[in-house]
Amino acid sequence: MGTPQFAVPILDHLTNNGYKPLLCVTQPDKPQGRKRKLTAPVVKQKSIELGIPVIQPENINDNETEEQIKELNPDLIITAAYGGYIGRNLRKLPRFGAINIHPSLLPAWRGASPVNASLWAGDQETGVTIFRLVAKMDAGPVLYQSRYTIKEEDNYTKLLDKLAIAGAEDLIEMIHRFENGTAKETIQDETKATHCRKLNKEDFLINWADQAKGIYNQVRALAEKPGASTTFRKRPLKIISTRITDNKSNKAPGSVVEVIKNSGILVATGDKDLLIEYLQPAGKKIMSAFDFNLGARIEMGERFGEPDESE
């Protein structure tokens, strides 16, 4: 049971290691893009490619879906970013129960956006947790956990991909433990639980009056998609990569301090200046900030994040 890209390596690893799923359950097709074209989840596309039957119920816990899964007599239900609540009847069906692959070191960052939250908080370490599903979100006993040191070059997109592959590899080891009877459970420490929510549009907008470290973490936590957003000359722009400097210009937040050849655009924040290294204009590909300047011919004192006066 899964829906976005995070679940795709899991399907590949299961199939390649002799554990091809009997069934894949994913969310219904949804309109996407400007033309609102009905698009299948990537997990559905991968399942079809691998020859795995797919169902897309509106409610996974309805009687029809429950009976369909019951008839398969599964040994194990695996969930990975499915996007829906798995009811008790389904959780109790398989011989080995129902497990979830979650990209955080539970009980840290329970919820919908653990990778974003970890980067935004400036964590030095994260990982993958495989745990047994219970009624309470992300609170079940831990079965397997692997740790990952967050690197300077990691952003949301890169880190999520790395954790997806790590989770897929961990899952195969976990299945081996189920098979040979060595699986062990560890109850989560509720006193150490932290939570994250689903992100909304307001989270994407950069406030240049914030401290440089906060903006740097925000950009990492959202890059490359959906991307931290701002405006320049009243046009939308996504900031993809930044670097904190020791420079402190004391200019108004968002003001261009300097364009540094082959490095980027130096911008004032609430404290230290921040170097924009990569950005993405609306409708265009990611480019270096210096290349953007070659076309825009930025002048000192111009500002990022100025509101559109027509709004």
Return the average pLDDT rounded to an integer. Answer: 95
How much strand?
A: 15-25%
Number of strands: 16
Which architecture of the largest domain does the CATH hierarchy give at level 2? 3-Layer(aba) Sandwich
CATH topology grouping of the largest domain: Rossmann fold
Q: So, the CATH homologous superfamily of the largest domain?
A: Formyl transferase, N-terminal domain
CATH class of the largest domain, named Alpha Beta
Largest beta-sheet characterization: 6 strands, antiparallel
What's the helical proportion of residues?
A: 25-40%
Number of spatially distinct domains: 2
Report the uncertain regions. Answer: none
Task: From the alpha carbons, calculate the radius of gyration and give it in angstroms.
Answer: 22 Å
The helix count comes to 9
The shape, in one word, is: elongated
**SS class:** alpha+beta
- Name the helix and strand elements from N-terminus to C-terminus, one letter apiece: HEEEHEHEHEEHEEHEHHEEEEEEH
Distance between the termini: 43 Å
Structure description:
The chain has 311 residues and is of the alpha+beta class. It has two domains: 5-196, Rossmann fold, CATH 3.40.50.170; 201-296, Methionyl-tRNA Fmet Formyltransferase, Chain A, domain 2 (Roll), CATH 3.10.25. Helices cover 28% and strands 23% of the residues. It is built from nine helices and 16 strands. The chain has helices at 8-16, 42-50, 63-72, 88-91, 114-120, 156-180, 201-204, 212-222, 289-296, and strands at residues 24-25, 30-32, 37-39, 54-55, 77-79, 98-102, 110-111, 125-132, 142-149, 195-196, 228-232, 235-244, 256-260, 264-267, 274-281, 287-288. Strands 11, 12, 13, 14, 15 and 16 form a six-stranded antiparallel beta sheet that branches. The chain has a four-stranded mixed beta sheet with strand order 5-6-8-9. The protein has a two-stranded parallel sheet with strand order 1-4. The longest helix is centred in the middle third of the chain and has 25 residues, at 156-180. It is elongated. The mean pLDDT is 95.
